[in-house]
Design brief:
Blueprint (H helix, E strand, L loop, with lengths): L11 H11 L4 E7 L2 E6 H18 L6 E5 L4 H12 L3 E5 L5 H10 L4 E4 L2 H10 L8 E4 L13 E3 H14 L3 H8 L5 E6 L9 E5 H14 L7 E3 L7 H14 L2 E4 L6 H8 L3 E3 L2 H17 L2 H22 L6 H22 L6 E4 L6 H9 L4 E5 L9 E2 L12 E2 L4 E4 L4 E5 L6 E2 L3 H7 L6 E9 L5 E6 L4 E2 L5 E2 L1 H9 L4 E7 L6 E7 L1 H10 L7 H5 L2 H18 L10 E6 L19 H7 L1 H8 L4 E9 L5 E12 L10 H6 L1
Parallel strand pairs: 1-11, 3-4, 3-5, 5-6, 6-7, 10-11, 12-13, 13-14, 25-26
Antiparallel strand pairs: 1-2, 8-9, 9-19, 14-15, 15-16, 17-18, 18-20, 20-21, 22-23, 24-25, 26-28, 27-28
Helix pairs in contact: 1-2, 1-3, 2-3, 2-6, 4-5, 8-9, 11-17, 12-13, 12-14
């Protein structure tokens, strides 16, 4: 039986024990295993954590040590975070899809001695990494399948460590309570590594005080409670999952639902019916792509009905969601649409019960934003980063503007520097970068403001608008502003385009690389009886080039009306012969473009774009899933895109940007 001794709940272990007393029989975790949802109550979770923590202590884990966590979203991995924190240790989640070499860097940088992993795949990677990280002495695994004949030293099953913990607790009955009580709000709770867009990832150290203050602000902002449901499907190493799953669960007491596998998330989403949902734009983009593929495959009658009622939704749904006046005829039509289209669609997507949904990390397209909101889904945008516990600005219900990220949150001070960079000071600010005092001093100035590296401005209503990364915002040869991410996001709004990289800083024109979405374009090609053998073959087809050219021209038509970026229309483009891949170091693990690396790797293609060539041959080294390396080659077509008359921005607007 777990006791709290009326300790102030200023750390996650203390909050866990508090929930075990105040809501012992309520579920803390659900996990789908073999098609059946299994629940763990708060009381059971606290006992599981206690036994694991005592087992870790018996193995030598102690205050100040770091515990690596690697795997998909699993209750035992979340419990391992809590167990480490109960002993005064620090949780260090890693991206589960990272190769062993990338993991080795983080393991060494964080000084990892102990690791808790999900299964055989992660055990294999950590055993490989241990060759260069000799300090990694203990690896604990959750799923024993495939590990029966593994006899490496320091390899333990979850159950064996808990059994060791039970015996250790018998010999040291005061250990657990004493260590939990010793935890202080200014202790480091977690180290979250950045995506490493411009270099090696940095470990962001967050205290309990910062995380709990941020979590309580979020809970109050949207009235979150123990009755809310969330599905944990985002990487454990991403600050979004840590904050919106682990932190908020500890604060308000709701249940963390863990899907059976990444491939069953859609089904699990429908079964759980979350009320609170968070995802980066790519999740919403992928979902909409799936919807549109299904619609194109539907009968002519169903397609016509869908498109008709979606026009009604865009006309009336947004106004209804925002509490504005809507005619009786449109109300009736929208109600009929809810019965025939919107309701069934939200049910298929698992979004029938969503009370509030957020997106962040990248800009979301207006069409995508309007689509979900027109269905009655209260989708809102937020702005933040790992160093600020995410939360800087959020959109309030009823005060949503699709081209902004909302107003600053309570107790968050945001200002714009003279060079246009967004500066943030908040209770959720990191303690610093792990073992990097110089870089910490560069990021946080003497006044306590964190330099985000983003360029932005406040509109007349006090909403923050983000333009691009400050370092990426440049100038065209004629002096007008060039914001590559803004252009890339416009391209990615189309379901046929998965990734894009725009070039133009210091040049007379803007040109771009395009990655097609294999699933969306593949489905489009199959419906037109266009044969293809793989990505490279599909990407090179003339019909596909024409499809992408139409998307590019629509972006140019939109840019022509933008006074700041009208001269950044795309003049030439090519479709890359391979998908940009984190394993090839072209993207971060959160799928952010490593712009400088791509520019160096594909310099010959950039030269071809700007030298007016119609084709360019290239050979590229790639990494396969099994670790082998190989070469792929292609003779890429380069096309001109239709552009439109540009409006020159006013001089004072250029200066402000």
């Amino acid at each position: 039986m777990v006791e709290t001794n009326n300790r102030p709940a200023d750390t996650f272990p203390k909050l866990l024990l508090e929930h075990a007393v105040t809501r012992p029989g309520r579920p803390a975790f659900r996990e789908k295993d073999l098609g059946i949802w299994q629940s763990t109550t708060w009381e059971q979770a606290a006992e599981e954590v206690r036994r694991l923590a005592c087992g870790l202590a018996a193995l030598g884990f102690s205050r100040g040590m770091n515990l690596a966590i690697v795997g998909d979203n699993r209750p035992r991995l979340y419990m391992a975070m809590a167990a480490a924190q109960c002993l005064g240790g620090v949780a260090v989640p890693l991206y589960q899809d990272a190769p062993a070499a990338d993991m080795a860097y983080v393991l060494e940088n964080a000084g990892i001695d102990f690791a808790m992993v999900e299964d055989q795949e992660q055990v294999d990677k950590l055993l490989e990494a241990r060759a260069t990280v000799p300090g990694l002495s203990h690896i604990i695994f959750d799923d024993p399948r495939g590990l029966r004949n593994y006899g490496q030293p320091g390899l333990h099953s979850f159950e064996s460590v808990q059994a060791l913990g039970h015996a250790h607790a018998t010999d040291h009955p005061e250990l657990f309570a004493r260590e939990v009580a010793a935890g202080q709000p200014d202790d480091i709770a977690v180290i979250l590594y950045t995506s490493g867009t411009t270099g090696r990832p940095k470990g962001v150290c967050h205290s309990y005080r910062a995380l709990i203050a941020t979590g309580r602000t979020l809970a109050e902002f949207d009235q979150l409670s123990a009755d809310d449901e969330v599905l944990c499907y985002l990487p454990l190493a991403w600050v979004g999952d840590f904050l919106y799953s682990y932190v908020l669960s500890n604060i308000v007491g709701f249940c963390l639902n863990c899907p059976e596998s990444p491939s069953t998330i859609g089904t699990d989403l429908r079964e759980i019916g979350p009320t609170y949902y968070f995802g980066p734009p790519r999740i919403y983009e992928n979902t909409l792509t799936q919807v549109m593929i299904r619609i194109e495959d539907a009968s002519a009658i169903k397609r016509a009905m869908f498109h008709y009622f979606m026009r009604v939704a865009r006309r009336a749904g947004l106004r209804l969601l925002e509490g504005q006046q809507v005619s009786l005829a449109d109300r009736l039509l929208y109600g009929l649409g809810e019965l025939l289209v919107y309701g069934p669609l939200k049910n298929v997507l698992g979004m029938s019960r969503i009370r509030v949904a957020y997106t962040g990390g990248e800009a979301i397209g207006p069409d995508l934003f309007d689509f979900y909101r027109s269905l009655g889904i209260n989708l809102k945008q937020l702005y933040g980063m790992t160093e600020t516990c995410v939360t800087v600005c959020m959109q309030r219900s009823g005060d949503v503007k699709l081209d902004s990220v909302g107003r600053p949150m309570a107790n968050v001070d945001v200002k714009i520097a003279d060079n246009g960079e967004v500066l943030v000071r908040s209770p959720g600010l990191m303690v610093g970068y792990y073992r990097k005092p110089e870089e910490t001093a560069e990021a946080i100035d003497a006044d306590g403001y964190f330099h985000t590296g983003d360029a932005g401005f406040f509109d007349g209503d006090g909403h923050l608008k983000i333009i691009d990364r400050a370092k990426d915002v440049g100038r065209m040869a004629d002096g007008t502003m060039f914001a590559p991410k803004y252009i890339e996001n416009k391209l990615k709004f189309f379901p046929f385009i998965k990734e894009a990289v725009a070039f133009g800083d210091g040049r007379s024109t803007c040109n771009a690389f395009i990655n097609i979405d294999m699933e969306a374009v593949g489905n489009w090609a199959e419906r037109r009886n266009l044969p293809y053998s793989g990505y490279t073959d599909l990407a090179s087809q003339p019909a596909v080039y024409q499809l992408i050219a139409e998307c590019v021209e629509k972006v140019n038509a939109d840019l022509a009306h933008d006074t700041l970026l009208s001269n950044s229309q795309i003049h030439r483009f090519l479709i890359l012969h391979k998908e940009l891949d984190p394993d090839d170091d072209e993207l971060t693990r959160t799928r952010k473009v490593r712009r400088r690396f791509i520019a160096e790797k594909y310099a010959v293609l950039i030269d071809a774009l700007y030298e007016g060539r119609d084709r360019q041959y290239i050979e590229t080294q790639v990494k396969f899933e099994d670790g082998r390396q190989g070469m792929i080659s292609a003779d890429l077509e380069i096309r001109d895109a239709k552009t439109y008359g540009s409006a020159t921005p006013p001089a004072d607007t250029r200066k402000a940007a």
